[in-house]
Protein 1
Amino acid sequence: MKRYKGSTHKRAALLTMSLAFGLLTACGSGNGNDPAAESAATPAGNTPAAENTAEPSKEAAIVEITVWDKPAPDAATKAVAEELQAKFDAAYPNIKVIHEDETQTPEKFLAAVAGGEQPDVFRPSFPKMQEYVQAGIVADITDLINASPDKDRFIDGAFNMATRDGKIYGVPLSMYSTGVYYNKKLFETAGITSLPATWDEFAATAKTVQEKNPGTIGFDILGMDWGDWHFEYYVWQAGGDLTELQPDGTVKLNFTSEATVTALQYYKDLKWTHKVVQSNVLQSFEENNKDFYSGKSAMILGASDAYNTFVGQGMDPSVIGFMPYPVGPAGVGPSQVGGSFWAISPSATPEKRQAAFDYIMFMSSKEAFETRLQFNKDNGLGVNPFTVVKDVDTSNYVEGMPADFLSAIRKAAETQQLEYYLKSSLSPYVVKPIQKVLLDQNADPLTELKAAEQLAQKEVIDKYNTDILSQSGK
Amino acid sequence: MKLESSPPLKALPAPRTRFRIRWTPVLFLLPSIIVFIVFKYYLIFSAVQISLFNYDIVNPPGRFVGLENYFVFLQTSTFWLALKNTFIIFLLSVALTFWVPIVQAIFLSEIRKANGVYRVLYQIPSILPVVAGALLWKWMYNPDSGLFNYLLGKIGLGPYGWLNDINMTKFAIVLPGFFASGGIGVLLYYAAIKSIPAELFESAKIDGCGPWRRIRSLVLPNIRFVILIQFISFMSGALLAFDNIFILTKGGPADASLVVSLLIQRSAFEQSNFGMSAALSFFMFLVIALLTVIQFKLQKEEN
Amino acid sequence: MKSNRISERGEKGLRFTSYAVTILFLLFGTLPLVWLCLTSIMDNESIQSATPKFIPDVPHTITVTLDFTGADSGDETFYKKEAMEAIWFPWASLIRNNIGEIIVNGTRDGQQLFRAKATSAQFYVGQMSIVPTRVVNDQVMKLKLPTIAERKLSDFEWYGPASKPAKATAPSSDHEVAKLYRDFFVSHDVLAGKITSVGHSRNKLRLFDSFASLQHIALGKAGDLGFYRYFINSGMVTFTVIIWQLVFAGIGSYALSQLIRSSRLRFFLLMFFLATIMIPGVSILIPQYILIKNLHLSDSLWAIILPHFAWGFVIFLFKGFFDQLPKELLQAARIDGAGELRTFLKIVVPMSIPVFTIVAVMTFVPVWNEFMWPYIVTKSPEHWTFPVAMNDMQQTTNRNTIVRPNLISASGVLSLIPLLILFISTQRFVEKGINFTGIKG
C-alpha cells in the first residue's frame, strides 16, 4: 500500500555538472511526467513492426524486447509516450518492443528477476542503481555507450552514479535538484524581507515566522525512515560527508566526524532549543508536503519537481518560494541532485542488448526530448528545469512558472553534491541517531553517532570492504 | 510413511474391509499432502537451500557459503535487538490482546437478549484488512490531528506522542489489536462454552459455587482445547507480524520496533541479500516450531 | 427459563458486568470503523484538519450561467471548450474548498445552448491530466477535450441554438465559494462568454463521490467491468480456496482424525501440516514465484489460488473437531456397511456444519485481504484482486494522481461489504451448530 511509494523518493544523488534547463515537471520523483514514463503502450501487435513481419527483411530477424515503461492509462503524458513509441516502431521495424507496467516495489522487481523474467529494459533510481550494480542485476554497457555517437550529448558527470570501476551500467534518464521551499505569504506576514543565508539566520527566520503566524510551524523536518536523505545536506553544509570512498574502492564511515556531529547537533537545536519543527517529527514525507501546501508549515526541503505537487493540491503558485540551502559552518550549501537511469538486463542476449540500447538512445534523442517538452508545454504540464542532455534547451518550454522560482532553482543548482556512498545499505544506521535526538531531549549526538558507526562498521562496512578487496585481488 | 508402504495389498485379492481401512485414508489425505509438499515443504526447502548461498538471483544459486549467513546475523547486535523486540511485542500482544476474545465470549455467553446481534457486531472490527487498519491507526495516533489524541485531549490527557515515543512505540503497535481482536475467535470460544453440557452448569449452581468460580473451574477448563488452537496460531501470527509494524513505524523510531520479520524483508528487498533473508526466516521457523512443540508437551502433561 | 429458579450468588453482578463489558468492547471495536466510514464521505480538508471533524461537510454545487450573447459564435466544440474551461480551471484553484459539482449552462440570445457538468468523482480522477498546473489558456483546454471525452470526465449536453429557451437565471449567490469562483475569472480572462450568474447550493449525493471515483479509476484499467472486475476476481479466488478447504482439507482431516490408528503417525501427520504455519510468508516469496512461473501460471488467478490450498491451521481445526465425534456413531455406520466416504458425507458432514462454516469464514478473511502475493504475481489489472487494486489507487508514483484520503477510506469501506454480508449470512449456520450438543469444544 502506501508504503511502497517510499523508494521512489529515495532516489537522490549527485552529478556535478552544468545544468541545462528544461521541462517543467517531475523528473525524479517518478510522476508520470518524467521523460521515461512516456515511451509507450502501443500494443505489440498493431505497430509497423508487426507489418514488417509479413514482409521479412532478409538479414535481420525480429528482436523482441520487454521494457518496463508502460504509462498508466490515466497518465497525463500517455499520448506523447505512445506517439514516440509508434515512431520507434516505424524507425526500427526489426525491433519489437513489449511494454509492461513499471513496477514500484523492489519486491515485484526482484521476484521478476529471480523468476528469470527480468525486463530487458528498466529504469532504476540513482540509489537503486548502486544497489543493483552491486547485486549484478544490471548489464555492463560500457562498450555500447563508448561506441555510441550520443555519448557526448549527455551532460558532464551524468554517468557517474551508474559507473563503477570504470564500467558503465546505465544511461541517464532524468534528474532533479533540491533546495528549500518557503511560503511567501507566511514570510510576508512575519515581516521577513531577506532570505536566511546561514544556519543561525535559518533558525531565527523559522522562529519569527512561527511566532508571527500562530498555528504554523517554522520548518518541517524529515525524521521518518528516510531521514538520512535530508540530513546528509546538513553534513555537507558543515563541511563533511557521511561516508568516504577510498581510492582502493573501500568505504570509510564518517559518522563521528566533526561535520556529522555538528549537523546532528543543529537538528537537535532546531527541535529542542529553537523549537521550530513539527511535533510529529516522524511523519512521512507526504505529510510534510501536506503541511507545506496547506500553509501549515513555512519551510520544507524539497526537489524541484515538488512544485507540481504543491500546485496540484491547490497551492497558489505565487506563494511558493524557493531558495538555496542556507550555508552551514563550512560556508557551503550544495544542492543534491537525484534522478534515474535506463538500465539493461544482464541476461539479455547481445542482440537484445543492442536492440534495447537502440531503444534507449531513440528515447534519449534530441527529437524525443523536444517532443516531450513540447507536449508538456502545450498541455500545461509542469516543471522540471533539468535535463540530462546538453543539446536540449529547456528554457524554451518553461511556461506558467514564476520567473523568480526558476531563477532560484538555477541558483540552488549551481553547486551540487552526490548522495553519500552506500546510502541504500547504511540508511537504517544513520536514521537511528537522527530519530534519537529528535525524540529524546537528553540524547547526545556524539554518543548516538558513535554507536551507529560501530554498528554499521561491523554489520555492513567490514563485509563490504572485504568483498571489494577480495574482488580486486582476483 | 507407513500407510504407503503396503502396495502388495492392491495386487492381492485382500478382504474388502482391510483394503478399505488401509487405502481410504491415503486417498483422503493425498490431495492435502500433495499441496503441502509442493507449496510448503518444497518452498521451505528451497529457502533453506538459498540460505546456504551468497545467493545470486540472476545466476542462481551463486557462491556456496555453508552456514556463514547464519553466523553473520547471529553476530550482529541488530539481529539480537530485533529478536528482543519481537519477543517483547509478542508478550505485549499476549498481555493485551490474546485474552480479549476469551473474556468477550465468556461474558457474551451470559447475555441472553439479542445475543446474535452482538456476535455479528463482534466480527466487524476484525474484518478490516490489517493494512487498512494500520493506516487508520497511524492516522489516529497523529499527535497533531489524530482522533485518538483529540479524544484524550478532551478528557484532559495528551496529546501524546504514541509512535513518536521510543518507550511507547511497541505498546502503540500492539494496542490496535486490543480493539480489533474479537472476530472469529469470539465465535469459537462462544461455541465451545455453549457446548458445555447444561447439567454441569446446573450442578454447579446447586453446589452454589457462584458465577466467578463457575467460570474459573468449569468454563475455562472446558474450552482449553480451543484456547490451545488459538494460541498456536496467535503465536506464529504475533512472532511473524509484519504488515502492521511496517505501516506504523517501519521499525522505528531508532529501531525501537525493529522486529525479525522486518529484517527478513529488509535484507531481501532493500539489500538484495536473499541468502541472509532466507537464513533469518529459517531461524524464525525453528524458534516458532520449538515453542509450538513446547506448547504441545505442556498440554499433554496437563492432561 | 428453568435455571432461573435456582438463583446464584452474584448473578446480578455478573449480568451487569456482562453487558457493560460487551458494550464497551463493541464501542471500542467499532470506533475505528465508524471513523473509516465517516472519512470516506468527508473532504480532505476536514479529514486533515487539526481538530478532527465528525460531521461531513456537504459539498458545494456551483451553478454558472455563461452567456454568449454578442460574442463570436462557434461550433459545438467551441462551446464545449468554453464549458470545460469554466469547470476545470477555477476548480483547480478552488481544490481545497470542497466543491462537489460545477454545472455550466450556456445561453445565447435567451436560448440555452448547452448544459455541462462535472462532479467531484470526475474531477479528482482527471485533475492531474487536465489541470495539473496553473496554465490557463484556450490552447491547453483544446488539447484536453479528447481526453475529457474519452475518459468521460465531464458531461456535456448540446441543445444547439434556438431549440431550448433558457430558464430564468438564478440570482448570484454571496456564498464565499461562489465569490472565489467569480474572482478566478476576474484574474483569468479566458472565457469568450460572459458569466452572468454564479449560484450556490449543496448536494448531499456528492458526499459519495469518493466511491464513484473508484469506479472511474477502475474503468480505465480493468476493462468494462471496472471496479466489479476486482470483486469478481477476489470472489473467484476466495470461493475456490474455500471449496478446496471444505472438501479436501475436510476429508483429509477426517482421515487423520478417525481413520489412522497409529497415534504416532497421527501426530507426525498433524505436525506435518501444522508446522507450515510457522513459515514466514515473506521468506518464501521468491521460491514461490519461481515455482509458479515453472508451472506456467504467472499472472493468472490460479497463481493466487493454489498456494492457499496448503493451510495447516484449517486441518488442525478440523481435526480438533472431528476428534470429538462420537466414535459409536461412526462405528454403527460402518457396521451398516457404509463406505468411509459415505459415512463422511452422510454422518460426519451433517454433524459438523459449524466447523465447516467456521472454516469457511476463517478462510475467507485472510484470502480476501491478502495483498503481497497477488500483487507480486499478477501483472495485468484484469487479474488483480481487490487489495491489489486498492493499493494501486493509492499509488502516486508512475502516474499523475494524488492520494486522497477519502478514496482510501472509500475503498476500505467497499472491501468490508462482502465480509459483512458473509458474516451476517453465515451467522445462522454457526448458531445452529452451537445448539448441536454432539460436539464439544
Protein 2
Amino acid sequence: MIDPVALFLLLLSASTPILFAALGELVVERAGVLNLGVEGMMITGALAGFAAAYHTGNPFLGFAGAALAGALIALPFAVLTQFLLSNQVASGLALTLFGLGLAALFGKPMEGVKAPAMSPGPLGLNWIVWLGLLMVPAIWWFLNRSRAGLILRGVGENHDAAHALGYDVRRVRIAAIAFGGAMAGIGGAFISISTVLQWTEGMTAGAGWIALAIVVFSNWTAPGVLAGAWLFGGVTVLQLRLQAAGVRVPVQLLSMAPYLATIIVLVAISARQKFSRRAGGTAPGSLGQDFHALR
Amino acid sequence: MTDAAVFRARGIGKSYPGVRANDDVSFAVEPGEIHALLGENGAGKSTLVKMIYGLVRPDQGQMLLNGQPHQPADPRAARAAGVAMVFQHFSLFDALTVAENIALGMENPPPRRALSVRIAQVSQDFGLPLNPARRVATLSAGERQRVEIIRCLLQNPRLLIMDEPTSVLTPQEADLLFATLRKLADGGTAILYISHKLEEIRTHCDRATILRGGVVVDSCDPRDHSARTLAAMMVGGEMRPIDRSGRQSGEVLLQVRALSQAAPAAEGTALKGIALTLRAGEILGIGGVAGNGQDELLAALSGEIRSAAGTILLEGADLSRQGPEARRSAGLLAAPEDRLGHAAVPDFSLTDNTLLTAGARKGLVRRGLIDRPAARAYAEAVIRAFDVRTPGPGTAAKALSGGNLQKFVIGREVMQAPRVLVVNQPTWGVDAGAAAAVRQSLLDLARSGAGVIVISQDLDELLELSDRFCALNEGRLSDPRPTEGLTLDQIGLMLGGAHGMEVAHL
C-alpha cells in the first residue's frame, strides 16, 4: 500500500529542484527577459554546490556556493543580452550548452565521492524544501505588493515606458537574471546534495526545461508555479513507486510519465487561457525583446 | 535679476550623429501660461522636451527652473524638481492597473489604499473620472490619457509638458483636456504644449514658440495670427493652398453591401453591416477613433480578408471572394496605415517594393519573371513625381523618413491609375509639407475620375479632402453626410467616442 502522507512528503522533495528553478525564471521573465539557460545554470549549481559541500563538509555552505555559481554563470548571459543586445533565445541555449559542458569537465574529480549528510528540518523534511515552500509566498508578495516588484513588472511589461519614467531597465534586468541564476543553482544543488547524494554528469536530466514550461503555463504567477512543480513531483514519485512495486509497464514509459503528464496538463490549461489576454495578466509585454535607449 | 519665468532655456544645443537636433534654443515659460511649442516633425520639439524631462542631456546651453539651474540626470530628478510630462505615445503599462501605473510614475507613492483615495479625489477635482482598480488594457485612449495626466497632477508639478496629446482624442475629449489644462494654469502651473495642430493652438494657447530645423524661428501670441501665417512660420514659406477644383461625381464605382465580419484577432474589431457607395471623382472620408475597425475595413476592401459573396462590388463585378492581386488587376487598390511592415517591406529596396503591388498593373512581371529595368524605371518615376527625397530606387525602404516613405507608398498606388483607391491614415506622422503633397495627389486622382476612400483620425484632413463624411464606431459605419457645413461638434457626436463625458461635464 502507498501511504498518502509519506507520498506527499516525497512529492515535496521531488518537486523542490523545479520549484526553485521555475520561481527564479518567473522573476526573470516578469522582468521581460527570456533565459533559456535554466538547465545550464541548474547543472552548474549541482556541481558547484556538491563540490562546496564536499570540501567544507557543510551542505548549507554547499547551497550558498550553488547560488553564487548559478548567479555567476548567468552573468555572461546578462552581459550578452543586456549590453550587446544578443538574441535572448540563442544566448540562453548557449548558456545551457555551456553549463552542461563546463560541469562535465570540472565534475570529473567529483565522480564517486559522497555528499556530507544534512540534518533534517521540521517534520523530517529537508531545510531546503522548507525554504522553497517559503519562497512561493515571498515571491508572490514581492511581485504583487512591493515597490521593487512593481518596478520589475513595469520593466517587463513595457520597457520603453519604464525607461521614459526614469527606471534603469538594464539594472533591473541584470539583477533579475542573477537572481534567476541563483535560484536555478540552488535547485540543481538540491538534486546532487540532497536527492542523489553524489555527482553524475547530466544529472539534472531536463528539469530546467520543465521549469521553463511551468513558468509559461503557470500564467506567470508564483502559486501557478507551485502547482506545476507539485504536479511534476507527484507523477515522479508515483512512477518511482510503481517501478519499485514491479508494475508490468516498461520502465522507459514510466520514466517518461512526469514529463508527459506535466506537458499534457499544462497545454490543457493554456488552451483555456489563450483568449484571456485582455481579462487577466499573461505574458509580460516586453518578454524577450531587446531594449536600447538613445541618450 | 528677478526671473518670474517657471522655465527658461538659454542657448540649448544637442547633436546626434549627422543631425543637429537643437541649436541655440532659448525661450521662457511663465507661470499660469499655456505655452505652445510648434513645429513640423523633425523640427526638434521632442528632443527639446526630452532634455527638460532628463531623458536626454543637452550638449550646450543652460536650463533654469524657478531661477535654479536645471540639469536633471534622469526623469526622476526632473520630477523631483517639479517637471511632469504626458507622452505622445502613452508610457503606460497595459497589464497593470490604473493605480499601479500611477504609483510607477511617482517618487514616493503612498500605500495602495491611500493612493486609491487620492486618485479618486484628484480625478473628481478635475472632472476626470477614473477607476483606480481598472486594468489599463481595458481603457479607451481618452481614459489612458487621463491616467497619465492624473499621474502628473499627483505630484503638483510646476511645469507640465504635453507631447501631442490630442492626436488620439475625439473633439469632445480634447475640449475636456483643454478645460483641465486651463484649470491647472489658473492655479499657477506652467504648461508646455507640443502640437502641430494650428487651430487648437490658436484657440487655447497664450504663447507659441516656433521651431524649424532645430532653431527657434519665432515667438508670438498665436491668437494674433491666422493658421496660415503660423503654418508659414512653421514650414518657412507659404503653404500652397489645396486645390479642390474640377471634380465631378460620376457613375457608381464601388458598392459595399451589408459587409459583416468577425474580428480577425482577439484584439481586433468586428465589422457590422457596413454599407457604402462610392462614385467616380468622389472622395469619401471615414473618421473614427483608432481601434474602431479602421484596419479591418481596409483589410476587407483590399482583399487581405475575404468577405461573403456579393458584399463588395467594383463597377458591378463581385470582388468579395477575390484576393488582393485580383482586386488590384480589377482596379481596386489600397494603401494601409502602417508604412513599414505593411505597406512596404523595410529591408527591400524601393524597386522591390514597387513590385509588391504594381507588378501586374504596370507589367513589371512577365511570365513569372521580373522585368528589372521596368521596375526600376517605375520606382524612379514615383520618386520623381512625388518628390521622394532619397538617393535612388536602390535604397532600402526603412532608410527613408516617414514622410518620404509615405509619399512613395501613396505614389506607388496613385500612379497605377486605380479605379478606386482606399487609404488609411495617409498623413499619419508626416510633416506638413509632405502631408500637403499627399493630400493634393489624392485630390488629383479623384479629379481624373477615380474614387477615393480616405480613412483617417485627423478630422481636419477629412474635412479638407472629403465630399462626404461617415464615422466608424465599434465596427459600424454611420450614414454619410455631406462634408460641407459639417461642424466639429457634429462630427464628434457622430464618432460617439465620448466616454464618460456626461460625468465629466458636471
